[in-house]
Design goal:
By secondary structure, the protein is an alpha/beta fold. Helix content is 31%, strand content 28%. The strands form three sheets. It has an eight-stranded mixed β-sheet. The chain has a six-stranded mixed β-sheet with strand order 6-2-1-10-17-16. Strands 7-8-9 form a three-stranded antiparallel β-sheet. The two termini are 16 Å apart. The chain binds flavin-adenine dinucleotide.
């Protein structure tokens, strides 16, 4: 099938990838509607993509070459133990074949790879969509209504397109939060010793009731240290649990900053507590953790992509890879389809179950690493390895599922 018009609601990771996939598959009019006015590239922190997923995505044409990435090799699990030195005591080490990215640089690479024919409109908020057998209607803030052959919901965790595809589906609060931040890697030198391990190492600090993942990422002005700290919700401080982005960077209240400082002092090995404390408050934020699975990812001429289709707790580091896989599967389904219905059915069959499996795996990881943490400090390396395998529950690993070969582009 060739031709047709597509509206992509949301111009982030999934939105850029879907716009490119639609043009390559043969659409003759693709419009991205992104509500943000400013430069998306200025925002965001670190994320990781498994090397095997990156290779599949590159083969499928969904991950452009040349985007800055930092190679990671192994993951070290450490506990606080004053007798073991400032970096903590190593309880287990595992291979970690991922590359880390800076969200803004990844977005910039995807945006730059979007064909010139894509019309990327910023400052446009979509208020609602409707899609029947004959097309999709997109209602904009201000009242204008636009018609397309297909509307893609790439509008993130609070998707308005999802509301039309799966009415009433809402993200569920997981019961804990994630503090996040990043800092100039050169600042680690201020700590005065060489405890920082190999730059390819990911450190997971383990403590009762939570854990923290620390790794390097590329940055616009040089390497940065990115950290993601899962812990029970702070008391007070104005954090709300009805909005996954309660406190954007730079807007932490003094009460929340103090709670973070106390957590680092209480639970972290001295070196890592001091390293995270170097983070500029403007680069620190806290968000409640949510997840959501949808019963379906298509309805009429509407289709869900990325976080709009599935909100996965971040533990399995699969959000960006999953969004790009969705785009690759969309392109493949389009190339095989002879009608819009065929395209939508093909996409539903390829991507419907994928999100549900990721949500289930991330729940197991969250339970084991935050909600019901084991006595890491008294476990042997073999016991930690067995504990890890138990969380996987038969999954091959974290970082998302392998892409079926059908997602590769037609020659
Ligand atoms: C600014 C930003 C920073 C991020 N930083 C990280 C990070 O550091 N690490 C990480 O793992 N993940 C991060 N993510 C999430 C990560 O990008 C996603 O998990 C994954 O890449 C899939 O994203 P997505 O494109 O489906 O959704 P999102 O990245 O959430 O994008 C949704 C887009 O839709 C737009 N939008 C929403 N509603 C409307 C509407 N009604 N009308 C028009 N536009 C709308 C939003 O402005 C946004 O650009 C970030 C997302 C954003 C937007």
């Amino acid at each position: 099938m060739r031709g047709g018009t597509v509206a992509v609601v949301g111009g982030s990771i999934a939105g850029c990838a879907f716009a490119s996939a639609a043009v390559r598959a043969g659409a003759d009019g693709v419009v991205v509607l992104e509500r943000t006015h400013g430069r998306l590239a200025d925002r965001g922190l670190g994320l990781c993509v498994h090397d095997d997923r990156a290779a599949e995505l590159a083969d499928a044409g969904a991950l452009p070459a040349g985007i800055p990435a930092h190679r990671l090799e192994r993951r070290r699990w450490v506990v606080r133990d004053p007798g073991a030195g400032g970096g903590g005591r190593l309880v287990w080490e595992q291979p970690f074949p991922f590359h880390s990215y800076h969200w803004g640089l990844l977005w910039r690479g995807l945006r730059a790879a979007t064909p010139d024919s894509v019309v990327y409109r910023q400052g446009v908020t979509v208020e609602g969509v409707a899609g029947d057998g004959g097309g999709a209607e997109v209602r904009l803030a201000g009242g204008a209504v636009e018609r397309y052959d297909l509307a893609v919901g790439a509008d993130g965790y609070r998707s308005v397109v999802r509301e039309a595809v799966c009415p009433g589906a809402r993200p569920h609060y997981a019961g804990y939060v994630c503090w996040r931040g990043n800092l100039d890697a050169a600042r680690l030198a201020e700590l005065g010793d060489a405890t920082d391990p190999h730059p390819g190492a990911v450190t997971t600090v383990c403590f009762p009731g939570g854990s923290c993942v620390i790794y390097r990422i590329p940055g616009p002005d040089g390497p940065r240290v990115n950290w993601v700290l899962y812990a029970p919700p702070p008391q007070g401080g104005g954090l709300r649990f009805d909005d996954p982005t309660s406190f954007p960077p730079g807007e932490l209240t003094p009460e929340l900053s103090e709670q973070l400082r106390a957590l680092l002092e209480r639970e972290f090995p001295a070196y890592w507590g001091a390293a995270l404390a170097l983070t500029d408050p403007a680069d620190t934020f806290v968000q409640p953790i949510y997840d959501l699975e949808t019963a379906r990812v298509t309805a009429g001429r509407l289709l869900l992509a990325g976080d709009a289709a599935t909100v996965v707790r971040p533990h399995n580091t699969s959000g960006a890879a999953k969004a790009l896989q969705d785009a690759a599967a969309f392109g493949a389904a389009w190339r095989r389809a002879e009608s819009w219905e065929g395209l939508l059915d093909g996409y539903q069959a390829a991507r419907g179950p994928a999100g549900r499996d990721l949500v289930a795996l991330a729940r197991r990881l969250g339970r084991a690493q935050v909600e019901r943490t084991p006595a890491w400090a008294s476990m042997s390396g073999d016991e930690v390895a067995a504990w890890w395998q138990g969380q996987l529950g038969g999954a091959a690993g974290i970082g998302g599922q392998a892409m079926p070969p059908t997602a590769a582009p037609a020659p």
